[in-house]
Amino acid sequence: MTEKSTESKVEEAQTAALELAKYSNDERSRAIRSIADAIDARRDEIIAANATDVEEAERLLEAGEYSRALVDRLKLSPSKLESITDMVRSVAGQDDPLGKTQTARRLDDDLELYKQTVPIGVIGTIFESRPDALVQIAALALKSGNAVILKGGSEASESNRVLFEIIREATSEAPAGWAQLVEARADVDALLEMDDSIDLVMPRGSSAFVSYIQDNTSIPVLGHTEGVCHVYVDSEADLEMATEIAYDAKVQYPAVCNAVETLLVHEEVAEAFLPATIDRYAEAGVELRGDDASRTIVDIDAATEEDWATEYGDLILSITVVDSLEAALSHVNAYGSKHTESIVTEDSDRAATFMRSLDSASVFHNASTRFSDGYRFGLGAEVGISTGKIHARGPVGLEGLTTYQYYLEGDGQVVGTYAGADAKEFVHEDFDGSWTPGSRSR
Amino acid sequence: MTEKSTESKVEEAQTAALELAKYSNDERSRAIRSIADAIDARRDEIIAANATDVEEAERLLEAGEYSRALVDRLKLSPSKLESITDMVRSVAGQDDPLGKTQTARRLDDDLELYKQTVPIGVIGTIFESRPDALVQIAALALKSGNAVILKGGSEASESNRVLFEIIREATSEAPAGWAQLVEARADVDALLEMDDSIDLVMPRGSSAFVSYIQDNTSIPVLGHTEGVCHVYVDSEADLEMATEIAYDAKVQYPAVCNAVETLLVHEEVAEAFLPATIDRYAEAGVELRGDDASRTIVDIDAATEEDWATEYGDLILSITVVDSLEAALSHVNAYGSKHTESIVTEDSDRAATFMRSLDSASVFHNASTRFSDGYRFGLGAEVGISTGKIHARGPVGLEGLTTYQYYLEGDGQVVGTYAGADAKEFVHEDFDGSWTPGSRSR
Q1: Cβ A363–B407 below 8 Å, yes or no?
Q2: What distances in angstroms separate CA A419 from CA A416, B313, B375, one per listed residue?
Q3: Which superfamily does CATH assign the domain made up of B6-215 to?
Q4: Which residue numbers delimit the Aldehyde dehydrogenase domain (chains A, B) (predicted)?
């Protein structure tokens, strides 16, 4: 079999996308469940292919080219496969994101406008080494009726090939070509050029990688770059609560984008708050870096200008003491990445000022920044987190993989009737009611 | 006064945007009405400045560098100014697009998540010669709480300067710098580079111009490129209705993007439909170009391959006879621009197939493509029409100038409680209710 070109794969995906848009939720969900069943049935085959990838990765680890963390992420065990199939089945069981009537409006008698959710079309995804990412992305794309181009990391190529083949065979009732695997690095550049046929690009990986994608395509990009999140302990804070939130936001899982990187403390409570909090952090081995004002109170290293803008992704935290709520807001606006910020205060007016003054995707009051997550927000499976402001921001669920279409049902109306001197007036009256194409509401 | 740099103007706009986001609908609407009042009061000044632009344009018209149409678009009369202030006041009177609670969800006791509409931030706009565009864009931006960078055409520079100064002075209660005027062509390139500070670019102008912007920035672009719209007359069509719709869709206003460019006719009705329809078109002076099958029925010029993909924007129409609904769909998918398509048929199943098979922003049944418009759709003032599929598509109202923020109100919750072996379960229960930051719903 000769390998198809990236162009012909994307063309196949475009054709499949138009077909897939017509599939019912039952049909899409059944196909997704078939994927889970096939993964269960072919577990040994997957683990054997994965072993080849892991072996090569171990070799490169010894040669100093790979990290232990990368090798660990790559490895598939029977229990990991079970959690993958659980996830796939949970995607199948979610509410249908398609065909939701967002607006039903009577423009005039027998002239009805419907705004309804539809798939985006063809989604290009580029992701890191975890082979489970391929399965998750494919399930989310299928549930939302989108065709998908999958480009995984070369270190997982054997695993990805087997998983893709299983997905392809298991979804034989879905339109042929709805999922496509591309493998070469050069294919990424080809994909990024195809702004006529790919509707959205979703990169998963480091901030630098996502920025590279954004800078090299005119296709809209849904992804997240940095998470420089803040917790601000206000003068009116419940200090015990503040310590718990500050601790959880850093320590509970420091490697993720919604972990706090800078703690801001109002000067009126700094002396009461910092020593006990610093003790808690010390227990967890958090490395602390403070400004001058904080270092007059606690004995920690000095922070540099660079610290304020850094996403550590690790057990490191910078601390600054501010003389007002306004100073805290200025700091967050100057250094933040518009991801997630939290204020701890008992004063609802001050909370309101904080929440309305910040331009971040998620702004919290008396809660840990770590809640900023699709699962915790109740969005079901998470497509990703967006640090952009257009289309979808913050944690993104299946809804982020949809757009809408306007349908108009008439009985011969022409615009001429509604123009000129004797123009008929529009009614423009919204009404409740779902709708399927071809049928009138009444 | 020394002219500020484009960078410092955008920086001012960023600061203003954060302030403006906190303004109430009343405050924003009052500022918009002040713009209308100031335009009324300073009419002579505006017309004098405009006369300078028009004089220069007439000179360039004589030199063959400008078209008569451009000079006409440029000219401001007292009655044109009146329609401008009417439009501005109608924007002020629209429903507030901000602060709408899209989701209110209880994650757990005393842990409530709100998803609420907010402004996008800083919007860069680049528009053609009409000076009324500047006023309309400024009013829409202010109503939706966005700061705006205005770059008009050089041919309207005197008019734009006076109008901008009037807007600036009239909105002295809005945050200083919320609107910024940039004038030089080089400033556009500077704007397109500023993806850290400009959140959205809205170009208005030719398809080629919008494509140029898309290709030269990593800022998200909201605009429309081509409108190659179709009317398909099905075998089951009411042929009188079909003639009226086909006529209206081309003739009522041929220069706009929602006018039909290609008429598709099912072969079973072609002989009954085409001759009478062609006679109607002939009355209006429409130039017709057909494929071989249509030319065996009516005496019209031959269409070339290029015709099928052309947005004429004029009294020109291409015609093709197809042997099936599927052939019509293939043609639209191959040559259309995903703007607006209409089927004329009495068969609701065939209508449903047409509507569900096309990936266009607007798909109509028994109605003219010319209805694809923000005013007719009841969206109020139209920001523009989007041919993209991300964020907003089709006619875009004020809603297209908003995004959303997640607010979480807790009383000290940390993620650690909901993780690990003894993890507490989330409630994830949606409830009705609007909300303002800092207040609990109950």
Answers
A1: yes
A2: 5, 19, 12
A3: Aldehyde Dehydrogenase; Chain A, domain 1 (3.40.605.10)
A4: 2-286
A405 touches chain B (CB under 8 A): yes
Q: What is the pLDDT of residue B191?
A: 96
Q: In chain A, which residues have pLDDT < 70? A: 1-2, 129, 438-442
Give the amino acid at A399.
E
Q: Three-class SS of residue A135?
A: helix
Chain A residues within 8 A of B16 when measuring between CB atoms? none
Contact A220 B220 (CB under 8 A): yes
Which helix H or strand E contains B36, and what residues bound it? helix B25-41
**In chain A, residues 256-285 whose CB comes closer than 8 Å to chain B:** none
Residues in A closer than 8 angstroms to B355, CB to CB, are: 407, 437-438
Closest CA to B171 of B19, B32, B15, B43: B32
Contact check, Cβ <8 Å, A406/B214: no
Residue at B151: amino acid letter: K
> For the structural domain made of B229-378, what CATH number should be given?
3.40.309.10
Mean pLDDT along residues B355-364: 95
**CB B165: neighbour CB atoms within 10 A?**
15
Residues 212-251 (A) with a CB less than 8 A from some CB of B: 214-215, 218, 220, 238, 241, 244-245, 247-249
Instruction: Using alpha carbons, list the distances in angstroms from residue A6 to A127, B73, B381.
Output: 17, 46, 42
Question: Of the candidates B193, B163, B196, B175, which has an alpha carbon nearest to the alpha carbon of residue B80?
Answer: B163
The torsion angles phi and psi of A353, rounded to 5 degrees, stand at -60, -45
- Per-residue model confidence as pLDDT tens digits over A328-365: 999 999 999 999 999 999 999 999 999 999 999 999 99
Pick among B211, B415, B426 to test the A interface (most A CBs inside 10 A): B415
Share of residues in chain B with pLDDT > 70 (%): 98
Contact: A414, B247; criterion CB under 8 Å: yes
Report field, pTM of the whole predicted structure over 0.80 = yes
Query: Could you tell me the pLDDT band of residue B1, with boundaries at 50, 70 and 90?
Result: very low
Q: What is the pLDDT of residues A231-253, one digit of tens each?
A: 999 999 999 999 999 999 999 99
Q: Which residue of B has its CA nearest to A414?
A: B368
From the list A361, A377, A438, the residue facing B352 with the nearest CB is A438
CATH code for A229-372? 3.40.309.10
State the nearest Cα–Cα gap between A177 and chain B, in angstroms.
17
| Spatial strand order in the sheet of B200-203 | B179-182, B147-151, B122-126, B200-203
- Pick the closest to residue A345 from A198, A252, A233 (CA basis): A233
Q: What single DSSP character describes residue A104?
A: E
Instruction: Please give the helix or strand (H or E) that residue B20 lies within, else none.
Output: helix B6-20
Which residues does residue B4 pair with via DSSP β-bridges, in sequence order? none
Nearest neighbour of A21 by CB, restricted to B195, B356, B407: B356
Identify the closest residue of chain A to B352 by CA–CA distance: A438
* Three-state DSSP class for residue B60: helix
The vertex-A256 CA angle with A250 and A261, nearest 5°, equals 40
Query: What distances in angstroms separate CA A79 from CA A90, A133, A196, A221, one per listed residue?
Result: 17, 16, 41, 33
Stated as kind and residue range, the H or E segment containing B151 is strand B147-151
For B225, name the nearest residue in chain A, comparing CA atoms only.
A196
All structural domains of chain B with their residue ranges: 6-215, 229-378
Determine the residue among B342, B359, B369 to mutate to test chain A binding: the one whose Cβ has the most chain A Cβ atoms within 10 Å.
B359
Residue B48 Cα, gap to closest chain A Cα (Å) = 31
Distances (CA, A) of A426 to A112, A419, B247, B377: 11, 11, 21, 9
Q: Does the model's ipTM exceed the 0.85 cut? A: yes
Measured CA to CA, the distance from residue A383 to residue A360 in angstroms comes to: 19
Instruction: Note the pLDDT of residue B377.
Output: 94
